[in-house]
Amino acid sequence: MIGKMTAITDPTTGQKKKFYFDYSYWSHDGFITDPSTGMFEKDSPDSNYASQTHVFNDLGNEVLDNAFDGYHTCLFAYGQTGSGKSYSIFGYDKNIGIIPMACAEIFRRIELGQEKDADVKYSVTISMLEIYNECVQDLFVKPKNRPKGGLKIRETKKDGIYVEELTSIPVQSYNDIADQIDYGTANRTIGATNMNANSSRAHTVTTITFKQTYYSGGTPTNQKQSNINLVDLAGSERQRTTGADADRLKEGSNINKSLSFLGKVISILAEKAAGRKSAQNTVVPYRESKLTRILQNALGGNSKTAMIAAVSPADVNYEESYSTLTYANQVKSIKNQAKVNENPQDKLIRELKEENERLKQMMENKQKMMKENKLEKEENKDILNKVRLMNVNEDPILTGQMCHAFKDGINNIGRSKKGKKPDIPVNGLGIVSEHNRASFDEKTGELILHPNEESSKRNKTYLNGKLLREDTPLKHGDMIIFGNNTLYVVLYPGMPVTQQMKDYEAAMNAVLKQQMESLRDDQHEKDMKDRLSQLKDGLDKQKHDAEKDLLRKQKEMEEARRKLEEELRKRDEDLKNKMKEAGDQKLSLEELQENLRKEKEDAERLRKLQGEKEKLFEEEKKRALLAFEEAQKQREKEEFDLRLREKLEQQLSAMIQMCNDANEMCRILGRTQYFYKPATEIQILPDGTKVPKVICRAYPDRTKEFHNVMNFDEFEDKIYMMKEKYDQYMYEVEEENNFSPELEVDENEGFIFGLSIRDDWHLIGNCYIFLYSLYAMLEIRKDHSPIIDIKGEQKGSLCYSIEPIVYDENGEQIDCVDSIQNMLGRDMTVEICIHYAQGIPDKWSTDVFTEYKWIDVDGKMFETEKVNYK
After folding, report:
1. 200 among the known binding-site residues?
2. What is the pLDDT of residues 434-456, one digit of tens each?
């Protein structure tokens, strides 16, 4: 990152692509922690590290300047999970983000404004909402008090687009806002735990409504209002860009409907801004998702909007980072028509009276909420002096928001039920009402965790990565995973809380590592890394030795050339001297010519000898260069294989967790016959390269061999659908206080659970038909291509024909076209005929059909008629 330029390099090809934005900030390294403030600062004057204060001075101040001028403003952060979106918006620890900085700056400016002009009155209110599963939730309302289905989005001429019944709290100071944000964040955590939401899948919208009312002689004359929307979007690795680079970056999955439609809206707006005729009559689909509906003004209406695109510098995240930068490049082309929001005098008086009534009600609600919040803070303060469990979340901002102290004696740990609350309530997927027990001796400080007596294997609890099977003493810093992914850490009073104790990813990986043993080869990975290290060292040594040897030989050649030139110079002088002597001695012309011929022959012989030496040197130099290039290619291949393996392992780790979640949800939903298993298969790329990929095998009946195969993105979609059904089920269960109601079978159940895409079909294998023959305009008649199954084994072959068809200007078919070059600028029809398949196993020979698509052509699938192979 240099100035406004951000460059990204493809680790596989080395190709660099540059993007230009209003600002480009680097915050990955080049900083130290100031011991006096705990804030990150540059580690040297030359460092290009951008601190939180630096970012706020550029972006936050501009947002507030527009707000004080009466414009609606919006700042949203976009990027993959872990890239720094929430850090930029909310901050972490002492390094506070844009929202808290903006809140403090608002009240600082209000104080200065009141000192300058007492006839201007200011009011500030705040609201917080979260969008998860296309459901809008009020974060200032406890989850148990929220309406089923979430809040509704409305639109009127007077108020524009707004969320009905969304709580707005009036605030008088920065501390008021900070308390409200903490309160909303705590409710976000509770909601995420109860409903099994994942932080990276939910969007958080914090809205600060800022009003300035101008008075003259005690009578209001004008009012400016600004809605400041600060948005923390979900992780964008769920959403890939579309457009010209669709061959590299796949269409976004439906895991997050809001992000998919946000990309669609931005794409259309960007095309309209670019003046493309095809987009001018296109309706922008704001209403297709809750997020785009709420942000309609910010995206293409009455608002001044800025976007923070957060990217990761890791090469394994290249595709996600490139997608984010491409996305941001589209956003910057959108032009909004913002206007100052003012009320005329005749409406103002009436509206102020109505607002006074609303503010009275809001103040009463605030007092009630603050009282509850105060009680919770007092309880939390008391908890810090006790042995306790503290939640650890994937999102660092949510870590530490929930603490549960152990009481003296037996503590029941588990899911809360209506009318029955355990001593330590822990909610999440795979957690039952009586999940574990913990015995605590207040005198000695001894704490022992007991496994579930009914089934420690089914009601899983992991302690420091290992399944809890027997009574185990706990100590400070122990990491406990209840159920599938609800993580807590044991803390003793007076002992430090290290960063390692807040590492969600490390704790989950410790559990997943055991489950991956059968699917990975640690020794192979170690050998590959050792081999890569040896190859790198050998390559460096080879390059150094080759350069040293070439330099030595080059010096020898230069020395030989110098000696030759010196000898030739001497011979030339000798020849001149002899000619002079010959003139003096009056030698015969024949003798003079003979001497001259001998001298020339000697000089030519020496030059020829030197030329041969230089030719040998150049050949040796080329051989050394080729050897070095081959070694370099081998090193790059090894590095690519290692990166591919690391990415495969990351996906495999995530797939194991998703399969665990799916199996647990099926158990709770009464679908115990369904079973999901992670696996890997060999994928054959169009160029014939074989690469491994992660898949899920979905079994409609765990006792039978038949199963459906889904790739990583497809299974993510199914998990999303299953969790919607699970959330709906758990809501009804908790309302009725009954954990085993009869769940009706949905007519789309096979699709929702990923058990079948089309009734009950089985993927026999993949077959690739290559079109190389079209380059030579050749026809292929009844050629065969192998059908390869998910294990890389051949399960038969497919017979096909390919014929290029070209018509002349009169519509007559041309029999022969010499070269594809002659087809430039002309239409060509390609006819592909699938004749039959052979060698297919008998058990899969009923209702066989072929499903096919053209690579890089909108992804549309076609299929042949079903036939019985027998």
Report:
1. no
2. 889 999 999 999 999 998 766 54
